[in-house]
UniProtKB/TrEMBL annotation:
This is Serine acetyltransferase. PANTHER family: SERINE ACETYLTRANSFERASE (PTHR42811). It is an enzyme of class 2 (transferase). The keyword Calcium does not apply. The lineage of its organism: Bacteria, Bacillati, Actinomycetota, Actinomycetes, Micrococcales. SUPFAM superfamilies: Trimeric LpxA-like enzymes (SSF51161). Transmembrane segments: none annotated. It catalyses: L-serine + acetyl-CoA = O-acetyl-L-serine + CoA. Pathway: Amino-acid biosynthesis; L-cysteine biosynthesis; L-cysteine from L-serine: step 1/2. Belongs to the transferase hexapeptide repeat family. It comes from Luethyella okanaganae.
Length: 189
């Protein structure tokens, strides 16, 4: 996908997810979640080429501007939407599929530095279409299956199959009922 096609897709994704979006120009200029994703794309490209210090500096500058901390080593799919975004943290070995949605205050982090070695996967993997509610924490090398929903403030430390609903501290896993709405799942901010 070309550079301008990706920008248009990102703006369209934000407009599709946010009913408050009033126009493409507003989304392009004022949505910090988009700015964080765009900064990450550049930092990630540098990171993959082994240009590590400039990648980290760019990610820190993006964090300063947006309040969203995405490590340049994280792998992010297409159409990520970060709603409001302040306080979002995405760790170095996190992997996000396509069409993931994160609300403010989400942490995709590691559980501990002890027992881990450089290069080892220590952050979560989110499948395609996963939604993570405000304040939720997904910790460690866990995999959340595609089209799952993690409720606000849940703390997830175990894998979940596709189409799961994860709620509570620690999060319990339930299958998503086909008739359950997003509001009933408790994912809105």
């Amino acid at each position: 996908m070309g550079f301008f096609s990706a920008l248009r897709e990102d703006v369209a994704t934000a407009r599709a997810h946010d009913p408050a979006a009033r126009g493409n120009t507003e989304v392009f200029l004022a949505y910090s979640g988009l700015h964080a994703v765009w900064g990450h794309r550049l930092a990630h490209a540098l990171w993959r080429r082994g240009i590590r210090l400039p990648a980290r500096l760019l990610s820190q500058f993006t964090r300063f501007l947006t309040g969203i901390d995405i490590h340049p080593g994280a792998t992010i799919g297409r159409r990520l939407f970060i709603d409001h975004g302040m306080g979002v943290v995405i760790g170095e070995t996190a992997v996000l599929g396509d069409d993931v949605m994160l609300y403010h205050g989400v942490t995709l982090g590691g559980k501990s530095r002890h027992g881990f070695h450089r290069g080892q996967k220590r952050h979560p993997t989110l499948g395609d279409g996963v939604t993570v509610g405000a304040g939720a924490k997904v910790l460690g090398d866990v995999t959340i299956g595609a089209w799952s929903t993690i409720g606000a403030n849940a703390v997830v430390t175990k894998d979940a199959p596709p189409r799961s609903l994860l709620l509570g501290i620690p999060a319990t896993v339930r299958p998503i009922d086909a008739g359950t709405t997003d509001a009933a799942r408790g994912v809105h901010d």
